[in-house]
Amino acid sequence: MLHSKLTQGLVCPACYTELDTAPTALTCKACPAAYPLRKGIPFFAEPPVRQGFDASFHEEAYGGTSARARFYNAVKQVITSEYSPHDTLNSFLASVPQNVVIVEFGSGARRIRPDVLNIDLFPTPNVDLVADIEHTPLASDSVDCVILDSVIEHVPNPAGVVDEVLRVLKPGGKLLCINPFLFPYHGYPAHYCNFTKDGIEQLLRRFGTVEVQTHQGPTSAIVNIISEYAGVVVGRENRTRYMIAKGALLALTFPLKFIDKLLVDRPESHRIASMLSTVAVK
Ligand SMILES: C[S@@+](CC[C@H](N)C(=O)[O-])C[C@H]1O[C@@H](n2cnc3c(N)ncnc32)[C@H](O)[C@@H]1O
Ligand SMILES: [Zn+2]
Questions:
Q1: What is 80-281's CATH topology?
Q2: Could you say which ligand is closest to the alpha carbon of residue 109?
Q3: What's the pLDDT band for 62 if we cut at 50, 70, 90?
Q4: pLDDT (tens digit, 9 = 90+) per residue, 172-225?
Q5: Cβ(270)–Cβ(197) below 8 Å
Q6: How far is the CA of 262 from the centre of ligand 1 (A)?
Q7: Is the dihedral angle over the CA atoms 150, 153, 154, 160 positive or is it negative?
Q8: Max alpha carbon distance in the chain (Å)?
Q9: Closest of 221, 229, 192, 211 to residue 277, by C-alpha
Q10: What single DSSP character describes residue 282?
Q11: Which atom of ligand 1 is nearest to the CA of 161?
């Protein structure tokens, strides 16, 4: 079964023509492209094979596919450097009217609200369609809001993704982009870049308005960096040692992150913020 929001309005990402629905594929009405349906999910891209230190671990943790992954995810709810004093994502969702089209680009396995359409390169649970967010099957000017949370650093061509967001958003449509700045390397499947405030403003310069604020503050950044430092010093590419060392430092230091409530609104906080968030209006 296709997600109900998807049965109308999808286009061929190669030529932007409407698609026909056949039992096993969506086929383009204009070009020879055909996109397979697997367990009801349309695949507009073939997920790459994940490799390396981060890949297998994140695949397991993200999919919640084993007891240890579920244990890890439960512990991570509490022992984490992540803290958003402005509760950026929920505040953004609360500001958006009901019954509009919201798409999360690079959703992973989460669904932030039942009405949000999820796109990801990997068919993890909750993904409605598998596509490369640089070439989505969404019609031009058809979407009210796009969410890019912790994703822009994972694409090799961030400007191409921004072009795609600008294409699919309606005039006046909004982008929420949350990106790391002083944040350690992490895979999913690769991690290409972090952006400063100036960098993100430059990337989103073709939007009408762009407002950047600190999403996770300087103390989160320090907690992350010393935890990662412990992992690197002790771990040396042995995942178990790495996880124990990093986890121990994190467990000792994570409550410090609440100091960021006092820092997040200082104009200078972006200089050493862990993460930034930007609302941009087309
Ligand atoms: C760090 S995770 C963030 C997931 C989710 N937005 C969150 O904040 O929990 C990055 C996600 O982007 C996805 N991703 C990376 N490159 C992508 C691409 N080119 N097209 C679609 N999804 C991509 C990854 O598969 C992964 O699920
Ligand atoms: Zn086509």
A1: Rossmann fold (3.40.50)
A2: 1
A3: low
A4: 999 999 999 999 998 767 899 999 999 999 999 999 999 999 999 999 999 999
A5: yes
A6: 30
A7: positive
A8: 59
A9: 211
A10: -
A11: 19
The structural domains of the chain, with segments of one domain joined by +, span 1-43, 80-281
**Ligand nearest to the CA of residue 192, numbered in listed order:** 1
Token pair for residue 169?
Answer: 């958003």
pLDDT tens readout for residues 255-270: 999 999 999 999 999 9
Specify the ligand 1 atom closest to the Cα of 132.
Answer: 20
Indicate the burial class of 219 (C-beta count within 10 angstroms; 0-12, 13-18, 19 or more).
Answer: buried
Bigger pLDDT: 32 vs 109: 32
Q: Percent of the chain scored above 70 by pLDDT? A: 91
Looking from the CA of 105 toward its CB, the CA atoms found within 13 Å total 30
Ligand nearest to the CA of 12: 2
pLDDT at 84 over 80: yes
Return the amino acid letter for 60.
E
C-alpha of residue 163 to centroid of ligand 2, in Å: 19
- pLDDT value for 76: 82
Residue 169 CA to ligand 2 center (angstroms) comes to 20
Cα distance between residue 69 and residue 57, in whole Å: 9
Q: Cα of 13 to ligand 2 centre, how many Å? A: 7
The Cα–Cα gap between 215 and 223 comes to 15
Whole-model pTM: value is: 0.92
